[in-house]
């Protein structure tokens, strides 16, 4: 058989010739030329880009306009939310730093900066007296809350001190006899909680003694001191940023789980939003701004719902057309479409748009709840993940429209061509990477700060692949063991040499090979499958001729009725293949 080419306005004999599929040696009687042309024209229109569809039908491009509007709205929404989230997170973090200075004994400003390598060790207590002094220091700071610069109040309506709670988590029994290397131990953990009172001249040690609570630090797993404070955040005066009211649940934790003589000290402040009883004289345009924010959220949700419906409809109709095409090829040419041709009917761009629509709708709903102060817990991070990921996929979708131009489409086609090889190559490289990761964690973990956990080891090795902080990784290795010091050198040199000089070079060569193949396709022509050979090409004259505007060539129901001989246009397309009549070798039962 001869290759399939695009149909020209010619005699029926030409139509018969172009309908043949290469490699189909079966002698079959040709179907009605009108049905075959209807099938070819429908497939041609399906695989057109929006620009070609505009020239062919002159219909308003709804999906394209919806996506443009969505990009503008979701980007505006993200910018406003990101600005507010930054102020919120920065405010809560600054309050946590203030609480650390007020309630943690020994806290230093150098601990507020996440520097690498750390400029100071962890905050901890090492003596029994320091443990009780730290509790007393926290209680004193809490009782003198009015002396703080921050506008903090106690967690009750009368603004009176609420007694903090001290909880001790201890093994049920644990006695060590170091002189003869023996012990008595019961791993069951008991919890004991007491309220720290404000009696004059009282200390935490005296309070525990008065309640007959004796702390055996050999059995103490951890201790927590909890209390709450309220505050009002004035922020920057203005109509868009009205004050917010918060409650901070503060927990000071003494962590002694390792029982290594070092009891780590940490402060955590969980924030809850409260409803403010605003001053009646505080008059602003808050309501107008709130309505504008709500309108923006509503518009984003509406446009995303519309986008979701249009793209879902397009995906569904594409699967219907695939079923009709499979039926057509099976009964006309006695062959099935291969997996590659079937996958052509699944538009991955539409799937990505559907996913980002769902994410943005969920994020917008949470954002509306946050702005209307209907959430007590901190939902900013959840909302940020939904909106951020959705916006990321929205901007990825712009590549689809750039792909209509040859210069930009090279990148997309190269990634598509190289994707299978990259996945196979990455899987092999990942196995080697996993071996280095487990080995480094096991051998170097106790002696190197970058290998202390499996996650830290993986992050360190990934940084080394990208040439980051190499000298610091070499120099940070402890010299306690000469053998392990030399092992670390061999280990690091081997990994860096293998991945930078071999693996990355091969990875780049895989992509370059795909790029050269795509460039050659642009010169010599892209290889065509059976489906694309049947479809052929569409000339500019055919696009502007108006043939695609005829209803007989645009209705999917009419096409199904013509190809599948169905009396009911609304029959299930999923039954096309199962309900297909068995064909004979020299006849094809296709009717109009």
Structure description:
The protein has helices spanning 12-18, 33-46, 50-57, 62-103, 128-143, 204-210, 286-332, 339-343, 348-371, 380-396, 398-402, 406-444, 454-465, 470-475, 482-524, 530-535, 540-544, 556-564; strands at 124-125, 152-154, 165-177, 182-195, 220-233, 244-255, 263-274. Strands 1, 2, 3, 4, 5, 6 and 7 form a seven-stranded antiparallel sheet that branches. The chain is of the alpha+beta class. Among the domains are: 61-103 and 285-404 and 570-592, no CATH class; 104-283, no CATH class. The radius of gyration is 35 Å and the shape is extended. β6 and β7 (263-274) form a beta hairpin.
Task: Decide which structural class fits the backbone.
Answer: alpha+beta
What fraction of residues sit in β-strands?
Answer: 5-15%
User: Cα-atom Rg, whole angstroms?
Assistant: 35 Å
- Please give the largest β-sheet: 7 strands, antiparallel
Order of helices and strands: HHHHEHEEEHEEEHHHHHHHHHHHH
> Which spans have pLDDT < 50 for at least 5 consecutive residues?
1-29, 566-592
Q: Helical amount among residues, as a percent range?
A: 40-55%
Please tally the helical runs, counting DSSP H or I stretches of 4 or more residues. Answer: 18
> How confident is the prediction overall: mean pLDDT?
79
Please tally the β strands and state the result: 7
Compute the separation of the termini in Å.
26 Å
* Shape descriptor: extended
């Amino acid at each position: 058989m001869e290759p399939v080419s695009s149909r020209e306005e010619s005699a029926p004999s030409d139509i018969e010739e172009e309908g043949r599929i290469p490699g189909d040696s079966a002698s079959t009687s040709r179907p009605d030329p009108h049905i075959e042309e209807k099938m070819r024209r429908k497939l041609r229109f399906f695989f057109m880009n929006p620009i070609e569809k505009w020239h062919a039908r002159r219909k308003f491009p709804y999906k394209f306009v919806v996506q443009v509007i969505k990009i503008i709205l979701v980007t505006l929404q993200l910018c406003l939310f990101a600005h507010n989230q930054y102020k919120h997170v920065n405010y809560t973090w600054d309050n946590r730093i203030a609480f650390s200075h007020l309630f943690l004994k020994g806290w230093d400003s150098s601990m507020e900066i996440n520097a690498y390598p750390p400029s100071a060790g962890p905050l901890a207590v090492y003596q029994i007296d320091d443990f009780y002094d730290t509790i007393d220091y926290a209680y004193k700071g809490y009782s003198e809350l009015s002396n703080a610069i921050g506008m903090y109040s106690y967690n009750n309506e009368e603004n009176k001190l609420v007694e903090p709670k001290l909880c001790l988590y201890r093994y049920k029994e644990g006695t060590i006899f170091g002189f003869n290397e023996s012990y008595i131990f019961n791993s069951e953990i008991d919890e004991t909680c007491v309220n720290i009172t404000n009696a004059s001249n009282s200390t935490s040690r005296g309070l525990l003694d008065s309640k007959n609570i004796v702390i055996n630090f050999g059995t103490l797993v951890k201790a927590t001191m909890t209390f709450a404070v309220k505050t009002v955040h004035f922020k920057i005066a203005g109509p868009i940023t009205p004050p917010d009211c918060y409650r901070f649940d503060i927990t000071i934790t003494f962590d002694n789980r390792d029982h290594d003589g070092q009891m780590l000290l940490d402060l955590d402040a969980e924030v809850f939003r409260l409803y403010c009883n605003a001053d009646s004289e505080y008059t602003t345009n808050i309501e107008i701004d709130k309505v504008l924010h709500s309108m923006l959220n509503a518009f984003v949700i509406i446009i995303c719902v519309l986008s979701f419906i249009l793209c879902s409809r397009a995906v569904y109709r594409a699967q219907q057309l695939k079923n009709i095409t499979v039926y057509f090829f099976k009964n006309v040419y006695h062959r099935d479409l291969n997996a590659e041709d079937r996958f052509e009917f699944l538009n991955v761009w539409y799937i990505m748009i559907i996913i980002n629509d769902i994410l943005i709708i969920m994020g917008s709903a949470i954002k509306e709840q946050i702005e209307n102060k209907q959430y007590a817990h901190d939902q900013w991070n959840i909302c940020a993940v939904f909106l951020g990921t959705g916006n990321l996929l929205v901007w990825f979708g712009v590549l689809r429209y750039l792909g209509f131009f040859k210069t930009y489409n090279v990148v997309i086609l190269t990634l598509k061509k190289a994707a299978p090889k990259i996945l196979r190559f990455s899987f092999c490289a990942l196995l080697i990477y996993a071996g280095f990761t487990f080995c480094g964690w096991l051998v170097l973990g106790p002696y190197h700060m970058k290998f202390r956990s499996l996650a830290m080891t993986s992050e360190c090795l990934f940084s080394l692949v990208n040439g980051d902080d190499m000298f610091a990784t070499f120099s940070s290795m402890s010299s306690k063991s000469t053998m392990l010091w030399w092992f670390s050198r061999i280990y690091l040199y081997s990994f860096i040499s293998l991945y930078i000089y071999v693996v990355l070079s091969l990875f780049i060569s895989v992509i370059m090979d795909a790029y050269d193949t795509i460039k050659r396709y642009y010169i010599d022509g892209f290889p065509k499958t059976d489906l694309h050979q049947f479809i052929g090409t569409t000339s500019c004259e055919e696009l502007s001729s108006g043939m695609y505007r005829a209803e007989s060539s645009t209705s999917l129901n009419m096409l199904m009725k013509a190809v599948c001989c169905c009396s009911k246009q609304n029959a299930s397309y999923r039954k096309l293949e199962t309900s297909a009549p068995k064909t004979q070798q020299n006849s094809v039962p296709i009717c109009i």
